[in-house]
Design a protein that fits this description.
Blueprint lengths: L6 E3 L6 H9 L3 E16 L4 H4 L2 E8 L3 E7 L5 E6 L14 H10 L5 E16 L5 E10 L5 E6 L4 H14 L3 E3 L3 H9 L21 H25 L3 H20 L6 H29 L1 H6 L3 H4 L3 H22 L2 H15 L15 H21 L7 H21 L5 H40 L4 H32 L2 H11 L2
Antiparallel strand pairs: 1-8, 1-9, 2-3, 2-6, 3-4, 4-5, 6-7, 7-8
Helix pairs in contact: 6-7, 6-11, 7-8, 7-14, 8-11, 13-14, 13-17, 14-15, 15-16
Length: about 500
């Protein structure tokens, strides 16, 4: 049975007044509300709500101001809250259904306005022969978009919605649409479209393309990611801007070191140093961001009697983060950074002007990708197999770095290989990376909390707080040891014969 359309768009020449006159000749209704309103759409920078098939609307008028989460497929209202101002983070909303649903999707990301649409809103109640309301209709008359209608079925009156839907489509010749049509149209006027940013790589390469040209395409996409996250990083809108910025920097560094001999050695050396510097200057701020994001986890790891005593640590970390963020923003706004990033952009824009080429510049990119991925995979197996229970922590850290290089190479070139096979191998690699990442993160956090304790002692911090931090250090040490113990099993899964055979089939034919 076909689904009843719930949304319709009016022809451009059909005003609200004309439509209401036409409708009045077909059905019995009255206008319950007629007023000016502003509809503002919200989402995270990386479209987490849209990707979860949700739309967030703030509808403001003289009589009300509501924010709503709507299923963009069915039009169902998932959660609603009355409020005047939209806070940037889900944690700042009042406890309730809206906060819960929002937090599940956007997590630590800020809720940002996408576009605002002034309009005249009409709310109609459709009546049956007994003068009972059997359907509600909202008519939005926009200033800059085609007018739109949405149907709101009432429980027990599904037939009424189907009948009116049929009437709108056939008798009044309105075009069915969907719940995000107004958003999509407004974004188009801005030169945008939904999901126009994602931190995931999607690089299309011709396997026969020259390696130097292919590497330029990769670096251009990574540069775009750096640039699009730059303003949000400087403004400290949310922590993920810096995170995505750093990932693009790390990927660029991995490309320069692992997509070997495609660009001139002098160019590689010059810009590799620049991106290494970017990694260094952004690390402190990112570490502090992570500690603040982990604070609730830290609290929950302590006995209930000690949780409140940890509060001074949060304030200490926040002060450090504010200072580090200010220093980072100054650097990213400075001439040194701007000049070096521009030099890299100019090189990528016109690489043909540079006569010197790497020794493998003319190699087909698929051939080079096969060689590099297979070689780094073999290095992962060698380094991992050499690690025993007595191996120092540095060996696991080195393996983690090698795994990152392998993952980045696979992500750069994944479009040239069967998607299903790459997905399986990347999932196996991510499992290994996860345990290695946990081990390093817990070790660094344990060491840094010890240093913070020493700093806070100089400020005469309360003994109860130092006790709570001591318990936290023990917890982090326990988690570090757990990750270390999990490594052998996880590496054994990764190096299993089936995975090795699959790597060989794809990359060492």
């Amino acid at each position: 049975m076909p689904t009843t359309p719930l949304y319709f768009v009016l022809p451009e020449n059909l005003t609200a007044e004309k439509f209401l006159k036409k409708l009045s000749k077909k059905v019995n209704f009255y206008i319950d509300v007629q007023q000016h309103a502003i509809k503002t759409y919200y989402d995270s920078f990386d479209w987490r709500l849209y990707n979860a098939d949700m739309v967030c609307e703030l509808n403001q008028s003289k009589t009300s101001s509501q924010i709503t989460l709507i299923d963009r497929v069915t039009g169902e209202c998932l959660a609603l809250e009355e409020l005047q101002d939209v806070p940037p983070f889900s944690a700042q909303f009042r406890n309730g259904c809206f906060k819960t649903r929002l937090a599940e999707r956007i997590e630590m990301r800020a809720l940002l306005p996408l576009c605002a649409l002034p309009h005249q809103v009409y709310r109609l109640n459709i009546l049956n022969k007994d003068q009972k309301t059997v359907l509600r209709i909202t008519l939005d008359e926009y200033e800059i978009l085609a007018n739109r209608i949405s149907l709101h079925p009432l429980k027990g009156y599904d037939k009424a919605a189907a009948n009116i839907s049929h009437l709108l489509a056939n008798d009044l010749e309105l075009s069915p649409t969907n719940g995000t049509a107004a958003l999509n149209a407004a974004l188009q006027l801005q030169g945008r479209k939904p999901k126009d940013y994602s931190s995931k790589l999607a690089i299309k390469l011709d396997p026969a393309m020259r390696a130097d040209k292919a590497s330029i395409i990769i670096y251009k996409q990574l540069l775009a990611a750096i640039q699009i996250n730059e303003a949000g990083t400087i403004a400290d809108i949310d922590t993920e801007f810096l995170h995505d910025y750093r990932v693009a920097v790390r990927r660029t560094r991995a490309g320069l070191s692992q997509i070997k001999n495609t660009l001139p050695p002098k160019i590689v050396a010059k810009h590799a140093n620049f991106f290494a510097w970017l990694g260094q200057i952004t690390s402190t701020t990112r570490d502090l961001d992570v500690y603040l994001l982990s604070y609730q986890q830290y609290q929950a790891a302590l006995p209930e009697t000690l949780q409140a005593d940890l509060a001074p640590l949060y304030e200490f970390l926040k002060k450090k983060q504010v200072i580090a963020q200010k220093e980072l923003a100054d650097i990213l706004s400075g001439s040194k950074y701007r000049k070096q990033l521009l030099a890299w952009e100019q090189y990528l824009r016109d690489p043909a002007a540079v006569k010197a080429k790497g020794s493998d510049a003319n190699v087909p990119i698929k051939e080079l990708a096969d060689q590099r991925i297979w070689k780094v995979f073999q290095r992962v197996l060698k380094e991992g197999s050499a690690i025993s229970e007595s191996s120092p922590a540095e060996t696991l850290h080195d393996l983690r770095k090698t795994c990152k290089k392998l993952r980045y190479l696979m992500e750069f070139f994944q479009d040239m290989y069967p998607a299903k096979d790459m997905k399986v191998l990347l999932r196996a690699l991510k499992g290994l990376q996860s345990v290695l990442g946990d081990f390093q993160d817990y070790e660094i956090q344990e060491n840094n909390i010890k240093h913070f304790s020493a700093e806070m002692m100089e400020d005469n911090i309360a003994s109860d707080t130092l006790l709570a931090m001591g318990v936290l250090i023990q917890y982090l040490d326990t988690m570090k040891c757990t990750a270390r113990n999990d490594f052998a099993e996880q590496f054994s899964r990764f190096k299993q014969a089936q995975n090795q055979a699959q790597f060989k089939t794809l990359f060492n034919r």
